[in-house]
Design a protein that fits this description.
Number of domains: 1
Largest sheet: none
CATH class: Mainly Alpha
CATH superfamily: MFS general substrate transporter like domains
Radius of gyration: 21 Å
Shape: globular
CATH topology: Growth Hormone, Chain: A
Structural class: mainly alpha
Order of helices and strands: HHHHHHHHHHHHHHHHH
Number of strands: 0
Strand content: under 5%
Helix content: over 70%
Distance between the termini: 16 Å
Number of helices: 17
Length: 417
Amino acid sequence: MSKLVRRLVPLQVAAFLQGVGFWVPVEKLFMTGIGFDAATIGVMAAAYAALVPGVEVISGILADRWSRRGVLVVAGVAMFASVLIGGLSHNVLTYIVAALVLGIYFAMYSGTVEAMVYDTVLEETGGSTAYERQIGRIRLIESIALVLSALAGGWIAAGAGARLTYFLTLPFVVVSLLALAAFREPHLHETSERSPLREHLHVTYAAITRRGRLIPIAAASVMAALLLQAIFEFGPLWLIALSASPVLYGPFWAGLVSTLGVGGLLAGRLRLDKPPHVVLVVMAMLLACLTMTTSHNLGALTAAMITLTLLLVIAGIHLSRLLHDAVPSTIRTGVASGISAVSWIFFLPFALGFGAVSNEYGVYTAGWMITAAAALAGAGLIWVVARPVAEPAEPLEATEATAASEAEQHAVLRTAA
């Protein structure tokens, strides 16, 4: 076992434990039992989508200036509180509070793990070549936890009720915090002299908006993240529309979340830097979306959603590497969190619109919104591959010193390796 692999083991253990969510596959079933309908589900999704962007930007800056491991611990505490409140909920309002707290978890977690893995790879190897493989392993581990807990959650809900699934999840969250405490955090993001917060914010914003290569990456990342969130948030509504048995929710959700692991394994093997491959991926995404808007066969619908999520996961990992390659470590989490925040801002009106259309005209009509989002995500991927790979990033005066410092660090690491 290499030093890099050994160092990432505590993070992998934490990822597995936080991936255990017995309640997740039956959440929509539980929600309809306490008074939710398609419209209020959309309102709930929009509520935490409104909360996440602000928290995400703050957490990204905090992770870059304080501790990325500390931010993940705070995220784990938020997850514990959310699951506990959700399990105790008996009405719509209380459950929306649980969703808002879960939004804090999403905001604190998003981008932080990727930045930690990327910087750990840089510290241990001196380059980013192994990043896709290592983040893919973590996605696989998360997927295994999600699949196993999804299958178990469906059977638990069928035998003992959906509420119990929430309380059985809590011990796993607690142990995950202990695993995080054992992880040795990389320190590439730390500098000997901290810049003022206002300057840090300016540099982070400028990195997103002024670097020509980063703009198409950001656009594609935003649309892919929005679409992936929409599938996970609203996908179970197709099961409700088809009056599927509660037992089927577990296998359905297991199939969806398994794409996180399979996508992690395939990331880097499917060459999305080649235009023909990107075109095929976009066509497959659109075909899957058309199936979701026309088919009333649960098997075909499940296959279509799995295909769509798998391709989005692969694309997301590819875009993640391009993003991290384009910015220095001192602002890496802030940039990633800023882009993720934009995706949540776009998701807010999408969630409200999807919930309203689904409630008024049915989930199949609302499915055309997902098709439109897939078309935009596909256009973003084509935009990325159409840009010259060797295009240099536009220099930013405020980051020249930190970028030079990071380059020196990387040179030392490469020499040591």
